[in-house]
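This section describes the prediction task in plain terms. A model, or a person checking by hand, is given the sequence of a single protein chain and must write out its three-dimensional structure as a string of tokens. No templates, partner chains or ligands are provided. The sample shown here is typical of the held-out split.
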Amino acid sequence: MRNVREVLRLSLGEGLTVRKIAQSLGMSRPTVHRYMVRAASAGLTWPLPETMDDAKLAAALFKRPESSPELLVLARTAVL
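The expected answer:
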């Protein structure tokens, strides 16, 4: 989670570009971009709330999509 926090700090706090963040942290640009998109989708801002520990940050950024009965039916019929 340290890299995610750094990406958020550099993008939201410092206003750096995806390219500069990727170079600074030794990460790929697509990974940095994905973190930024997930953070925006989760409505995260910088600085993060003091109560946001790594588990809460991971839950906000990487929550699994809700499965619906319709998707389950489609998945089962596609296998048959």
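For orientation: Helices lie at 2-13, 18-25, 29-42, 54-61, 69-79.
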